[in-house]
Design goal:
This protein is an alpha+beta fold and 435 residues long. It has 3 domains: 2-58, no CATH class; 68-178, Uridine Diphospho-n-acetylenolpyruvylglucosamine Reductase, domain 3 (2-Layer Sandwich); 181-240 and 253-405, Vanillyl-alcohol Oxidase, Chain A, domain 3 (3-Layer(aba) Sandwich). 28% of the residues lie in helices and 25% in strands. The protein has 14 helices and 19 strands. The chain has helices at residues 24-28, 83-92, 108-113, 121-124, 152-158, 193-203, 264-275, 286-290, 298-301, 320-334, 368-384, 398-405, 407-419, 428-432; strands spanning 2-6, 13-19, 36-39, 55-58, 65-69, 74-78, 95-96, 131-138, 142-147, 167-174, 176-177, 181-190, 209-215, 224-234, 282-285, 309-314, 338-344, 359-364, 387-388. Strand 1 and strand 2 (13-19) form a beta hairpin. Helix 10 runs antiparallel to helix 11. It is globular. The structure holds flavin-adenine dinucleotide (FAD). Flavin-adenine dinucleotide binds at residues 8, 37-44, 48-49, 59, 79, 101-103, 106-107, 109-111, 113-114, 116-117, 162-163, 167-168, 248, 293, 391, 427. The site of flavin-adenine dinucleotide has 33 residues, from strand 3, helix 3 and strand 10.
């Protein structure tokens, strides 16, 4: 079947040959003569799960929970099991997944392939830290079971490997004990990005949910905003499935273009004032604390037909204050329409294309000023040793990825080509960054 696919940021679209195997036999019948890529929920900002002339293998029928060892907290799931379903299942048994990105529709396969981060990456690490075993299908090798230690090389290549080593069929994950809980959420006001970094430092070791909202819509605002802090507290409430959320339509439906130069500063200021009223903790459902974007997904639609660009970078801690000053200068000089800026605290070693080190995200309207700003932001990242999250920005070039990731990029590329000399698994993302 031919389908027109659109990335969530609306920056890439193309018709693709789309198949949806509904049993293992059909999946394993895929031959080694065509270019393919697996798709989970298809919610990635950039076209990581499709591309021109590439057959898309939707894994949506492989979404079951296969096994659960309650004593060890080990859960085995098919690759397209959505996080929301696993979370509900585990919560009933007093467990949770330590790392979950912000929407319940996102699948385990997508989280492994992008090595997603959760609510406090400084403390909890990345999604793949909890992956014990992966079953991977490649038409040339058949079905293989990868153990974290025994098959370190391919395992590492698959974790954060953007689906380029094959189709993840299922995975075994280590869950963490967590009693039934509600989240107590509060906000701390910050005057600029420097204060934001300090507040993150103070909260990072202890806080369950930790991210920031910063206003860069006008140079004079300098990133003022608030830090969202949440702490899970045990409660006796029954664990109820939340079925009320609506799935994201990847780039599909679009709304009127609300995010404009004239509206963003006004709406941002209103949002900041309302949010900063929660200086005292507010009791919040665990679901809403873990998946904060679920009820705000209309945000994406309000960019209108041309969508948006998200740059998400991790910068070394020792350059972050310089970086914040340079970023403010860049905003003043190029005058982009920055709708959203947000930070999270990270730590950990860099390896291959995995995304680790303060993380700053900016969502920008891609008009002429926005594009100028983003081009210069790429140069700033190259100069200051920051690395961009490859599954977010649809315009990032291979040249910048090479500069930013340096030897780790070459190491990933070399190992990928050694594992799969025919390079059967490709996407618009992998072609753009020359993998
Ligand atoms: C609302 C929202 C909130 C988000 N919040 C966060 C966040 O807090 N932290 C974060 O890190 N990310 C976040 N993300 C990004 C998201 O985690 C990743 O884009 C994730 O990959 C999306 O999962 P998916 O199932 O939609 O994957 P898809 O978009 O379908 O695919 C993404 C990548 O995974 C690969 N893939 C998917 N399934 C398989 C499989 N079975 N086998 C092999 N490869 C596969 C694809 O080939 C592709 O390369 C967010 C995205 C959205 C839309």
């Amino acid at each position: 079947m031919i389908r027109e696919l659109v990335s969530l940021d609306r920056r890439f679209t193309c018709p693709v040959d789309y198949v949806e195997p509904d049993r293992y036999r059909a999946l394993y019948a895929i031959g080694d003569h065509e270019r393919i890529i697996a798709q989970g929920a298809g919610t990635s900002y950039t076209a990581a799960s499709f591309g021109r002339g590439v057959k898309v293998v939707s894994m949506r029928h492989f979404d079951r929970i296969l096994d659960f060892d309650a004593a060890a907290g080990l859960v085995e799931v098919e690759a397209s099991c959505p996080l929301g379903r696993i979370d509900h299942f585990l919560a009933r048994h007093g467990y949770t997944l330590p790392v979950q990105p912000g929407h319940p529709q996102i699948t385990v396969g997508g989280c492994i392939a992008c090595n997603a981060h959760g609510k406090n990456p400084y403390r909890d690490g990345l999604f793949c830290d909890a992956v014990q075993q992966i079953r991977l299908f490649h038409p040339r090798c058949g079905l293989v079971t990868l153990h974290r230690e025994a098959h370190r090389s391919v395992f590492e290549l698959t974790c954060g490997g953007f689906g380029l080593t094959g189709v993840i069929v299922s995975a075994r994950l280590q869950a963490r004990p967590q009693p039934r809980a509600v989240a107590n959420m509060r906000t701390i006001s910050v005057g600029d990005l420097h204060e934001t970094f300090e507040a993150l430092d103070e909260q990072a070791a202890e806080t369950d949910v930790l991210y920031t909202w910063n206003d860069l819509s006008r140079p004079s605002r300098g990133g003022r905003g608030f830090v969202v802090c949440g702490q899970f507290e045990p409660c006796d409430d029954a664990v109820e499935a939340d079925e009320s959320w609506r799935p994201l339509e990847s780039g599909g439906r679009r709304g009127p273009r609300v995010w404009r130069r004239g509206t963003v500063p006004v709406l941002n200021e209103l949002y900041r004032r309302v949010a900063c009223r929660h200086a005292r903790p507010v009791r919040t459902r665990r679901f809403d604390a873990i998946y904060p974007i679920t009820r705000k997904a209309f945000y994406y639609r309000l960019y209108g037909r041309y969508g948006f660009v998200e740059q998400q970078v991790i910068m070394p801690n020792d350059v972050r204050h310089d970086y914040a000053d340079a970023l403010s200068r860049l905003v003043r000089e190029t005058d982009p329409c920055v709708v959203l800026a947000s930070c999270k605290a990270f730590r950990g070693p860099r390896s291959l294309l995995h995304f680790r080190g303060v993380c700053l995200s900016v969502d920008v309207v891609p008009d002429a000023a926005g594009r100028r700003f983003l081009d210069r932001l790429d140069d700033l990242n190259d100069e200051r040793g920051a690395i961009s999250n490859l599954c977010k920005d649809s315009r990032l070039s291979a040249e910048h990825v090479r500069k930013q990731y340096g030897p780790e990029y070459e190491r990933f590329r070399r190992r990928l080509h050694r594992f799969d000399p025919g390079r059967q698994f490709v996407s618009a993302l992998s072609e753009r960054i020359d993998l």
